[in-house]
Amino acid sequence: MELGILSLSDLQPDPATGALHDPARRTREIVSYALAADQAGLDVFGLGEHHSRDFAVANPAIPLAAIAQATSRIRLTSAVSVLSTLDPVRLHQDFATLDHLSNGRAEIIAGRSAFLEAFTLFGIDPAHYDDVFAEKLDLLLAIRDDSDHVTWSGRHRPALDDLPVPPRPQQEKLPLWLGVGGTPASIERAARLGLPMALGLIGGDIRRARTLTEHYRALGQAADHRPEAPRLAVTSHFHVGATSQGARDDLYPYYREYLRPKSPGGRGWLIGPDDFQAVSGPAGALVAGSPQEVIDKILTERELLGIDRFIGQIDFGGMPAAMVNRSIELLATEVAPRHPQGTRPERESGRMSSPSNPTRAPPPYHHRDPLPSSSTPTCPRSTTP
Predict the structure, then answer these.
(1) Ramachandran class of 317: left when φ > 0, alpha when ψ lies in -120 to 50, beta otherwise
(2) Which residue of 49, 79, 115, 153 has the smallest Cβ count within 10 Å?
């Protein structure tokens, strides 16, 4: 099982001045987290794309290229690339170049976005939200499958007639995942196309996601894809500390700040202490606590959902760099090598062993908050917009 981290590069106001943190410093900090993850032996680093003043990174391929030059083994992915507002030709070119710089470690997680700013900035009508995404995904797949001879036509971009899209990636094909937030239509699309899926869990009860993952696998098999082919990742807000209560006490103010609406009627929601305890509990989507608690929750997700990759959103809400770096260190040194029973599992390059029964039914549980959905471009902050 692969373990990794991601950043969405959010910028938070300085409590003393009210000014947003410096995006240049923030970007450099994020690069340093990726380097620390590589040195610690983690498997994957992801970086989000946003187009508002609340985030530092608009094009993840550029910081990932800097990271590629200073790392040797960690895989590098967008998290996500907002395909609805991008040119698939340029996206493939950017990540093929990243693949060269990283010696074959580049990946793309493509998503529709949960934010309206990109649609306004790039002149995409949100009324065509899903149609534009489906069309651009079709073109991206055509480029990925044969970048030397691309023939394609659609309604939202000029046609291509047997044109090359250089450069070729170093890998035979760029790994392409679909990032989804729980919308059935998005899950069905990934299944029909036989694409691996990165499912963002940012609230509610993780056991409720089992229906979604089972639906994904069933549709994939019905579409004649090999049952073992589509991979499944989960992304969640994440923090690991030396002790259970210490980790929660440290994280709570930053988690609350990250999720709270920044303006009257703005996106986000208020998190009180009781809400925080529920979402960080054994069945909650927030992965936070001591190393053993984090191990237990990730393996519960593996057992329940059948995931083979976990990516934790490691920095948000203005968390200080020392706190983030300590969490990365504990993830690599205390979580990755250990099994809940205290034995050392078979492990290759940071991979944590998985339980033997990935389909055990969850106990009955009801939570008042549904899993967030990315069915419209107006939902709150998400790890896989």
Answers:
(1) left
(2) 153
